[in-house]
Amino acid sequence: MSLFDVFLPKPAAPTAPATPNGGVVTPPGNMENPNQVPVATPNTDPNGVVPPTPVAPAEPNSPLDQYKSLWDTAPIDPNVPTNEYTPSQLKPEDVNKAVSNADFSAMLTPENLAAIAQGGEGAQQAFIASLNSVGQQVLAQSTLVSNKLISQEVTKALEAQKAGIPDLVRQHSVTETVADSNPIFKDPAVQPIIAATRSQLAKQNPTASATEIAEMTNNYVLALAQTFSPKAAVAPDINEVDWDKFLT
């Protein structure tokens, strides 16, 4: 018995039920034979009543319940364009088709062809001149094609970089804001955890501001702390009890 028990009202003694047969309570059972006492079974009480099924107490909510989907990875939709630059890959069949349409026979002049047909020393000189002209044309066309391909790839890379600038600026802003929101976030021992949490929250909340991501990160870390180190219930100080209010 504790000190506080003296202030609790004492329960009244149970009153025996009035019975019409001289004080003998007829137990429930067989209505045709009221004097037959029911036999208890594993699923019934001695008085024949089936007890209610016990209900398991509900588990207390965890501070981390709202973050159950934080680390879920969203499926990648191949139809959604991204800002990442991917170099173009030339297909051999396309290259062969383009080359087959090229004709460098125009570099063979009628004069050189006639000299080659006559034979002799003049034919050798004409052949060398024709071969040199064809080689020069091939080199010129190859340079032009390479320049065009390079220009296209540089343009694509610059467009992808330009499209990714807003995201880079947002990432930088979020990183600085989260780091400045709590001094412990700059500690090397916890910085990788904070960086992963910050990045995941920013991905799942693409429209949230840097300040909102910082607040989410702080709330997540606080929920972790509360889960790992829950606060124990503190008994009230007897000297702080308002006895006047308690007794009225």
**Unreliable stretches, pLDDT < 50, 5 or more residues?**
1-9
**Whole-number radius of gyration?**
45 Å
Please tell me what the overall shape is: elongated
**Ends distance:** 22 Å
Specify the helix fraction band: 40-55%
| Secondary structure tally: strands | 0
Q: Mean pLDDT, as a whole number? A: 76
How do you describe this structure in short?
This protein has 248 residues and is mainly alpha-helical.
Summarize this structure as a short list of keywords or feature phrases:
248 residues, mainly alpha, 47% helix, 0% strand, elongated, disordered N terminus
What would your notes on this structure say?
47% of the residues lie in helices and 0% in strands. It contains 6 helices and no strands. It has helices at 92-100, 110-118, 121-181, 191-204, 210-228, 243-247. The longest helix is centred in the middle third of the chain and has 61 residues, at 121-181. The protein is elongated, with a radius of gyration of 45 Å. Residues 1-9 have low confidence and may be disordered.
